[in-house]
Design brief:
The chain is of the alpha/beta class. It has helices at residues 32-45, 57-60, 63-67, 78-84, 89-102, 113-120, 137-144, 159-169, 194-202, 216-223, 250-267, 276-285, and strands at 5-7, 10-12, 19-25, 49-54, 69-72, 75-77, 105-110, 127-129, 150-153, 174-179, 206-210, 228-232.
Length: 289
């Protein structure tokens, strides 16, 4: 059985409650107030952590990409949009303090080395490596040098690419997440049986990062062995933003957490026994034995 990974004060792995992450990502649309409302929704739903995304815009995107025309509430270029979605140092300090007040963990997906250094000042319980960054060897090594647990998503990646990433990171304090990187994802593309494949291949705790519409596949992933699940959270799926349609609204997130906890209770320990509640029924209905 893979050894559990310690994320903050929680052990993540087989035999421990599923670690449930509400990904705020960029659904705050650059607004601190919205970010705090999303944190509140995650707390109310019973999540274990919230996650953000951090980029150094001029490093992650080329000058041509930033100059590309793109209409948004923030301007007419892709650069206007990307810069508007980045929260500043003061905002992250406020988020860190607010999460501490609300007693919920927070961390981030960092898309470049400078962003790792920026988030490191807040001493996150772990780092998440986005699917888009899985093949960035230098970024993987930079994450590992922090000494913190690493969670990697494996969307749009081949097994060979995942093998390479795991080889660079090592298997110590590592969680591998199965992911399909479409927003939203078609149910037929989810391939949840990959959870078992990843677990057997790498011998580390596995998880599921879902982008589908609906909750059932995420709950099923827990029944299939996901030790950590992540879904994007939004205040309203009709809000402006590229990730909103693949996100879960607050009431839905509360149902998701409720159903995951119910499935965990139902899974049991795999030891066949006659329950106390069955004894009276057995005496009433069984003729022999």
């Amino acid at each position: 059985m893979p050894q559990a990974v310690q994320i903050g004060d929680r052990a993540v792995g087989a035999g421990h409650p599923c670690y449930i992450v509400a990904e705020i990502g960029i659904n705050h649309n650059g607004d601190l107030d919205t970010a705090k409302r999303l944190i509140d929704a995650a707390v109310l739903a019973g999540c274990d952590a919230v996650k953000f995304q951090k980029r150094t815009v001029d490093v992650v995107y080329s000058a041509d990409e930033l100059a590309r025309p793109r209409e948004s509430p923030f301007g007419t270029t892709n650069g206007d949009l990307k810069r508007a979605l980045e929260l500043d140092s003061a905002s992250y300090s406020s988020i860190s303090a607010y999460c501490a007040e609300r007693k919920i963990a927070w961390f981030a997906s960092c898309w470049d080395e400078a962003s790792v250094d920026f988030i490191e000042r807040f001493k996150p319980p772990c780092y998440k490596i986005a699917s888009a960054s899985l093949t960035d060897d230098d970024l993987l090594r930079h994450h590992r040098r922090t000494g913190r647990p690493i969670v990697i998503s494996t969307g749009m990646s081949t097994i060979d690419q995942i093998d390479r990433a795991v080889g660079i990171l090592g298997r110590e304090a590592l969680v591998v997440m199965h992911t399909t990187s479409t927003y939203p994802s078609d149910i037929k593309d989810l391939n949840l049986r990959m959870l078992g494949v990843l677990s057997e291949r790498y011998g580390v705790p596995v998880g599921y990062s879902g982008h589908e519409v609906g909750l059932a596949p995420t709950v099923a992933a827990v029944a299939m062995g996901a030790c950590i699940v992540e879904r994007h959270i939004t205040l309203d799926r009709a809000m402006w933003g590229s990730d909103q349609a693949a996100s879960v609204e607050p009431q839905g997130f509360a149902r998701l957490v409720r159903d995951i906890r119910a499935v965990e209770r139902a899974l049991g320990d795999g030891v066949k026994r006659v329950t106390d509640a069955e004894i009276a029924v057995m005496k009433k209905l069984r003729r022999i034995g």
